[in-house]
Amino acid sequence: MKQSLALAVDKKEAERAIAILRKLNLIDPRLRVRREGDRVLIPLSRSPLTWEREKLEKTITQLSIIEASFEEKVPKPTSIIDVLQKDLEPHELAALPKSYDIVGSIAIIEIPPELQKYEGKIGEALLKIYPNVKTVCSIASPVDGAFRIRKLKVIAGEHSFETIHREYGCAFKLDVTKVFFSPRLSYEHYRVARQVKDGEVVFDMFAGIGPYSIHIAKRACAEVFSVDWNPVAVLYLKENVKMNRVGHRIHAICGDSRDVASNSLQGVANRVIMNHPLEARKYVDAACSALASEGGVLHYYTFVKEPDVIQKAVEELRSALKKTRFKNMELLFARKVRPIASREWQVGLDVKLS
After folding, report:
1. What is the reported pTM?
2. Would you state the CATH architecture of domain 180-353?
């Protein structure tokens, strides 16, 4: 408890008094307002000036300036270092991860080997920082396999891998150990969706649980063909389509996009999304076969090492297009989407083919 100058007012006038004191910048933000019988005591940062007191007295019928004791506010931690600074040595604090992913109610963090013994403390620290996080997982393996999934280990909170993630007005249910999803692509989902116009046919070649497809269907009267070869991802995709009420615009298909392109979508798409940086180059011919005869737009993603990452990504796509029927490629937009390793980036290209 700490002694402070305070304004004492009747509880019925407390809300009005607090509003005036805030405008005058007179409330001490380090102390908690408290009740005392029928009065409310508001901690002051200083004694009110004569004109300030006169302003208060014009609005508040009963007030007095007194000395009182108040509970001090505990500053909310904003980083793992804030929480663990008393438990770890300086060199250990320096090794703490600076970034991590939050997917719905699940935080996912990569803990360096030298800090493995503190994984429980690190997990609890994240729970303190983020009240909405219920589960903290450490990364137990890299993203691997055709389904782009990885092993995770629960280090704090509830033992659950299923959650609902929300971004830009869309909701996505998923199991973080069974499907690929990156919250770091949220702006990219939104950016691409804003470009789609009413009446378009869109081919989402590696749709996963549907972030691109659902963003598009929420924003445009477009027909979206959402394909993924992970059956679990497609189950979540169908559930997310219902949850976001866009079932009339999305066709969810489990299978290989190459087969779908050649059998069902040949020559019908106005736009193709190719968000599988490791595999997209191999599917450029299939994407082009799905585009309408007059051409259309590709949203192409790849991994590129520095330097000149944009130039390398453009050259990679141009090379892959040589075996297709399209001869003209207009670069509409290029972006370094996110770093994936030291000096390596995921790059996104928007190109118009004709």
Report:
1. 0.82
2. 3-Layer(aba) Sandwich (3.40)
